[in-house]
């Protein structure tokens, strides 16, 4: 049992008028040490287990035990330390209650009750006129509580709950305030309402509302549980680290980009044409199953490809021989210009994707490069990372693995910075790096030449009806070259023996990116230059769309084969034949470049196949599950853990500039320069796809002056190249300014850290200097003896002493 609270203040007895207020010097004598500041919070001290015990006669002044090696400062030094802002104990509950009482009064606009301005203090209360009995303070605090409860009762329920929730009080006090502030009128109304009988209609309405609410909650929980990354991302990050996790986060980002691009295409292009289908120009072949690989056959006569879309305004009947075969009298009166909708919908989808991509890249750059340093976060990771809200064993295990992997990555990065490298080792690494780059560039040139030669062979060799398996020859050759070159680059990286795993991944990404961009450049020339000249009569846009579909399908098949033979078979051979417990590592560079390659193919084919983003979404979802299963079963964590703090930013940058920019140039060339097919598609009667906007503008000019501002807007925004250059310059300026702002923030943070460190050293120096000056002054005083202890609060018979100790202190017994 704790002893009753005994409070004895060490205050000098006044010699003059007792009504006079103590002087500042006399009050400073009360604050003779930092330990005595706990007197001001005596109630809180009693709650925390500390007791104010009376002094035992003959024991003299006793202080709290000090840690070993701690420096004992003088009375003046302790007074200065006690007055520092960092030594302030905090705000009392009375001040908090007074502040919120004043706030509620201001909210209710009542001027009849006075404000408790004299009670609200921002820091610890003063000891002037400090009463030895605590009853007055307790009564004053209870009065302030009652006033606050009365004011809370006058507020609306939502505002009252919000204010109580934001009060810096304990949960028990918040619960007490919420219970006491509940209005008695509301309670009586509730009791009266409970006594009345509820009608059947009201019961039915309540039942319907509850059923709809439960159904909505079930749908939300189902959508949350259907996400493929709901639990997998935490598990992957905990077991394999942030480097492997960055691949799956990038895949998730690509899913969002494709969904964002697919929405306007479905709403304004595919959905409208599916609602008003054109008359078939010929017999539709039956579905054979081979279309899933080749993309031809019955898929050609659907909204999947460019040639299915009509070139008419859907509100006009067939009246022109130029539009024969593509107009239907069933279209009704919907004024919808399909060529214009096709051009502007694809352009708007690309513009939205561009804005989203630039914003994501700048945001990721700011998040990953704002601080850019891992110094000093090891202790933060150890002591502050655990989430105490986790209660399930499975979730706690995942969090434990995540913290362990994060510590490994931090320590590996610190060891890498501390590890020196000799001059001979650096020279050898530079020589191997140069040789590796020569071999990589030679392999890239060889692959590009091979693709160009094989594409010429495919052009000279006609296909039987254009629906055979031989159409898969070019995608197969390209996928084999990409896979073989990626393994060659991986072997060269092993020979180079990079000290930093981050540098090794960046090198592999750069080499694979150069290879894939070179191959895609050759394919773009093959599709828009030679195929257009070869296919004059057929619909070359459909052929390009089918070719891009085949590339996506074959690339996905090779990904499955690589996961099966490159990871599963190698794990079985290593475990069964070689008797090793060593699994292959997850190749981040090759898998990320496969994602960028597939997304580039999707952007290249949007103009010729509006549903290609839907195919890419399905491909990414299947790839997520396949890669996750293969990673968990066949791969191990990186042998050299490393912190992937900037990988997401690098991936988005590569996706933006080489990939999206190249696809935008490809499509702009197709829209502005290439002549469309004359037998299919919405632009069959035009010289270029771009002329659809010009024809629409001329039609508006002939319609009258009511829409004269639309041609002017089209001329300023579309035909004038200044607007395009202005938008491009603004995007580049935003990126540049964001980079400079982040650099400035990093510099300011570094300077502030250095200033904090210098100020800490200054404080130590000033305290030591002050202590030495005070000791010199004490020695120089006449009448002082060396035997007299320099105690900040030595025993004085004219004073009453305060002894502050814990009841567990052995000195008490």
Automatic annotation (TrEMBL):
The signal sequence is: none
Q: Where is the composition biased (Basic and acidic residues)?
A: 776-806
Q: Where in the cell is it found?
A: Membrane
As for membrane topology, the entry says: Multi-pass membrane protein
UniProt domain TMC: residue ranges: 539-645
- The membrane-spanning stretches of this chain are 204-226, 247-276, 340-360, 427-452, 472-493, 505-528, 548-570, 591-611, 649-672, 722-742
> What GO molecular function annotations does the UniProt record carry, in alphabetical order?
mechanosensitive monoatomic ion channel activity
Q: Does the keyword Chaperone apply?
A: no
Q: Where is this region: Disordered?
A: 776-813
Has UniProt tagged this entry with the keyword Transmembrane?
Answer: yes
Protein name listed in UniProt:
Transmembrane channel-like protein
What's the source species for this entry? Answer: Mesocricetus auratus
Q: What is the lineage of its organism?
A: Eukaryota, Metazoa, Chordata, Craniata, Vertebrata
